[in-house]
Request: fold
Amino acid sequence: MSTNINRRSILLRSGAGFGAVVFSALLADEALAVADVNGVSTASEYPLAPKRPHFPARAKRIIFLFMPGGPSQVDTFDPKPRLNRDNGLPSPKLYLGQQRNLLASPWKFRRHGQSGLEVSELFPRTATRIDDICVIRSMVTDDPNHPGGCLLMNTGERVFSRPSFGAWVTYGLGTENQNLPGFVAIGPGPIIEGARQYGSSFLPAAYQGTLVSNPTEPLRNLASTQVNHERQRRELDALSRLNNLHREQRAKDDALAARMESFELAFRMQTAAPEAFELKGETAATNRQYGLDRPETEQFGRQCLLARRLVERGVRFVQLYHTTGGFQPWDQHSGLKAGHEKNAMATDQPIAGLLTDLNARGLLEDTLVLWGGEFGRTPTAEGKDGRDHHPFGFTMWMAGGGVRGGMVYGATDEFGWDAIENRMHVHDLHATMLHLLGLDHERLTYRFAGRDFRLTDVHGQVAFDIIT
Amino acid sequence: MRMLVRFFPCLLLVLQGWLPNACCSSRDDSAAVEFFETAIRPLFAEKCVGCHGPKKQEAGLRLNSHTGAITGGDSGPAILPGDPQKSLLIRAVGYQSELKMPPDGKLAEKEIANLVRWIQDGAVWPGDERGDPLVSSDAVSATKSNLWSLQPVSDSALPEVQSQGWSVSSIDFFILNALEKRELRPGPPADQRTLLRRITYDLTGLPPSPAEIDQFLNDPSPAAFENVVDRLLASPHYGERWGRHWLDVVRYADARDLIQLPIDSDFREAWRYRDWVVKAFNHDLPYDQFVAMQIAGDLMQPDDPAMIDADALVATGMLAIADFVPGDVDKDQMIADCVNDQIDVVGRAVLGMTIACARCHDHKFDPVSTEDYYSLAGIFFSSRLIPGPVPGNTPLVRVPLLPAVEIKAIEAQSKHDRQRLAELSGFVQTSSDREYAAYLQNKVVSSLPHDLPMAVEYIRRANDAKPPTLAEFATAHNAEPETLQRWLTFLRRQPVLPVLNELLKDDVLSNEPTSTDAPAIRKLLNQLAAIADERREHQSSDPIARSLAESQVLQFRADDRSISTDNCGQILLWPDRGSISDDAIPITDTPGPRMTKASIHDRLRPVIRFNGNAMLQVPRSVPVTGSLFAVFRPDPDAAGTRLVGWEDSAVGQHGVGLMSTADGGLHAILRRTGASGDVVLPAPNPVDFRLISLTWGTGGGTCFRNGEKVGANTAIDSVSSDPAITALHIGGPGSGTGQRFRGDLCELRVYAMPVDDAARVRVEDELRSRWLTPTAEQVPLAENDPAADLYDELLSPRSPYWIDSEQRLHAYSEEARQRLAAENEELQSLKNKSAAEIPRAVVIQDGGVPGTKHDGFHDAQVYIRGNPAKPGKTVPRGFPKSLTNADSPTIHDGSGRRELARWLTQRNNPLTARVMVNRIWQHHFGTGLVRTSTNFGFRGERPSHPELLDYLAIRFMESGWSVKAMHRLIVLSSVYQQSSMRPPDMAEPQQTTGNPGSAAAEVQRSVSRLADEVDPENRLLSYMPRRRLEAEAIRDSLLAVSGLLDPSPGGPGFLEIAVPRRTLYLMSVRTGAKTADFSSLFDGPNGGGIIERRNQSIVAPQALFLLNDVWLDQVSATLAARIARDALSNDPEARVRLLYEVTLARAPTSAEIEIGLQLVANSDETDSWARYCRVILCSNEFIYVD
Reply:
């Protein structure tokens, strides 16, 4: 009866046993029918099968370390001596019509690595990896509010429902391991704007991010509470026989075959997913490397270690929400000193550990790591010890995946206010990252209601300068 | 072709895909036009016309018209129809020669291939007589003449068909005619069971029950199917199914965000709109009215102010659930975003036009300019969803759904009830207290002369050689031993002990036998009697004193000598000296405050010091109206701590509280079920002891500081009590985790009435003279008058005559008992009377947002590039020019929504009817005649059967816009009743179907193969498309077949997937927060955007859900139980048969029975039937409809 399974299903079935590379090659061979990544919308394809990019990719996967609330650029990666000198003086710029005073950074910057890039003392561990990192000091976004800022950063649109970044990437490239979701978002705390940030919107449900809030139960329904593996296998065999009887009476219908295959994938996922999320096998040295041995770094360290395990297993897009201490921990309208110190402390060691480990395993080369929040913070003071939301010029950084390390891209003015050189709008960031993945952001489109939608809407310039 | 391959090797792959079509001579003009409009015109518009168009003609070339392309520019003709290889355009876009176009980046391979194909096919360019300006904003409406959907709807005669007998409905002629043109034939009719399952899902979203199957199969009438259709259309489940289809296109959600948004800023009453939509479909509300009410129902209200059309108000929920992102900074942006969303929804849901695209620039493809956009925007800017801009989250407009007179009556009644409740709850408590106080006073007067000497005598006899036992002694004195015991306890406590010692050391001990007559005791008894008289006299002659005494709830004084402390000086008990009430004691496991002294006006006085974690509580509920007095001083360094209150600081919905603010000021908390009457005072200077008086009642809340009125708030007339807060907390919030008080407290008093000025001044004078004057005029009671102290103690909870509140009634007279019971009954019934809720809905209202530039009615300014900060030219409110004509209404006053509603539903509007009948068609066949059912513009697809679409649109309007009539017209056709079963391909081995080699089967197969070639997407409907159930239908089917389904309709949504109601009512929230993770798994709506057509994803997590979710455990177990119960016999095969009937509406084959029996055969395994049921629920057949 298995003769009814079409060629693609056979490929998918055997793919589980092959290495991802072999699998991709097989599909590339078959890709005659899918020369364009946008040709995936028919139900006949298993939607997450790996797809060939538009052009050779520098990065195969993304880890997005999202810092909700908005870390301050002038206190982290964009030193401003002028700000320190003019501490307390009125800012030359009004903030949304208000006059406020400049606030010096409470932290010192030091040069690190061969590149000699300056990093504030908030990130001593990350600073040791600075030669892997490209610091973008000229980020610009459109929305000074958290909800709109987060949506723009994660979906390319600040108001309307649009597919998330990760959804676009899995739509464009599929994923290499069919036994795991292609796009995983890990956030132990509540996430501002919730599912809109990792949803698929009008893209098929296959591309929505899988939210893991509790790593001990990473995906829902991974095991039957009623029957063991053997009995479930027998039941699935019976299901398969029944489905085949159903199919035999009908002309070729790829949806029916794909749905049968989805049950086989689910069955394999039951074993593969718990293994991917299980940290017990990691060594004590690794645990230390990610900061799992210290209470302040344990939570984000666990997230980072999971990210490495997932990309290692072929997950296409992993997004980590830093939610230690609230759903926008970096939002220091007051208590900047204590707040940023606490946040940096919680993430510095885990991030450095992740970069080091990815590098050691040869994964950093084709894994693109992105760090940052939805906007930055004002160089001016709010209260005595706080900074307000700042969309006009802020810092994010990338590492690995074809990005030039030890480099600064763009600049803000001498106060850290406006991005004045190589301005990189969020759309440009998205375009650049898609480019690194081998995707042309203008061709990665999805036709919905008669219009071809893109992650970058009608914008986006690739920043070629940051690519090696 | 060969040359092309050489030039564009990479194109080969793509072109192969096109070859069958490209070579097919049957391509007609309409397909070529469609191809041009969807693939070529937009490409020229986007990539070429910027430099080669009406504004610029680089190299002399214009690519905005056929003539321009043929004529060409400096290098000669750009295209040579029929010969792509020789066309300059193809060489340029191929980047193979010097000329590389477009210069900023090569076109996509598919785009190039499309150009090749277009030229190959003759370069069809419709409507090109006058040239075809694509992007000039002045001439945008000229494209109207080219857009099929803007042409008037025209009726046409039924087309000729060759094959007779198949067409039973007028629409069949259109379908058959189109099939025959391609030499195709329709499929055979579906069998009865398949048809019943199909129509039942189509119209109700539920599977047919075995009884319904029986009824249909046994109905010999030729109208059997029609009867089924009528039955289903009359079912209340019909509206739940078709209402959901509409909700999809108006981006319905039950809420925006259940976590981050306060309730006022979210559209939590959206469910009323959802219920209205369901009702409208069930009642077959004419579609024109259905649309008009959603646009302008608030403006269609009856003239009589005593009447209200609640349905019409609720209907505008469609506009009120706008998709916006809350912003704490920019309200202008938020308002503009809402308007854009409203234009988008109205444009796409009703007109099938993407008008919102013209927000920032003229529409790239369709005849809609930015001016058109802002003429519509003026209408919505002149309407409002928010009452006004406020900092932070903005509340939404809500209106009551009752006429003003009814609301007035309800409000008057509830105000009356509240006042009576306030009166009574103070009164019943004080009345009961008064009764008890009288009882105690009587008891003291009557029993003291006997009991006190007895107790003293007993103590004295303790020194005897042979002291009497307590029981003997009491009996000898005609007293209960318990009474004596209580007296002994009483006399040994502070502050009574000194009095006793005084008595004992005097002459009592020496005058052995006559101790009861001892002068000291007599003197004391006389003193106590005098005090009792004096108190009575004082209260009866002074009305202020009496009313204060009668309404006093509690009084705590730091100079009270009867305060008891532990070894560390922490208070164990703070006696209430005010009335007949309980004492304050620490909360379990929490330390009490300390007694200490503080310097007040250079004089050391006792104070109770709270250190930030100490708390005391007194069991007593909050007075609904009342007064509170406090003399205290907050620690100047302790910001924002709560001194005293009946409230839950975490919820803050009810009660009374006093909080010292960060700057040393005061925040009086006064709440009634969420409404706030808080009073906030700035800090006094300096931060020192102050006397605060707070009253709350019908006049609102008023606050005095040191006798001066410093704040008031009239927002509420009484406070409500949180059922969870049953005690007054001193030194901290009611519950929750708010900060505890730090500072010193001298005295605290509460009265169950808002004291008038005279009484307030009286209390303030007393407190001031006791605590805040440099030299005390009136010395504290407790220090100098032990007899008065003793008298107070005799009326306190420590008195030997004290009885517990539960037993008190028995001590009263019959008359008092009845009176108290009656008062209490009235109080309880008022308390239990649920507040008459006035139903409210989120709606749109006429007039722009007050407090913004939109206030009132204004024409809008064009926002340059959509930026509200860059306003341009003002355009009059109105409708897109390309869609208006002489009959179109004009807007004179009001927002213009009334006119908009009229314009949308005019018969000569070419879009409204077409869009709706197409949508109805889509939900019957899975795909509309126009596949892009919310986009009838150039980028949308053209109709597969244009004449049929118009035919349906005209019938729709003729029927009075009846949706149900449209269903009947569609489903009673042959095309709808076709089979979806096409013969399996020869390449696939046949195992179960009979006669694979028969001649008939072979003919069918060849027709089928032809259809696959000519019409691979089945646009011509040579067979019925198979469809996967939507998320709602999947879950509803699981509930229905297992018998769990609770069919009750409407009301607020539910959150848990296990609630067995229809999935329509499962909460959908735009952020997904807190909601069940079900719908999104099966491409269900996320409520965030317009859903034109549901995706039909197939992914492993869906399988995991069906295989493993615990809810499915319950469903399959219930289904198994149902099968066991309802099967005709215990025979396993009978059960298998019933299971198929229930779940798949058919009988099983022998092979299927065998598989089932094998699964349930193993008797070692538990739940084998439930597991088998689950396998069936996982099957493809269960989830697909043929």
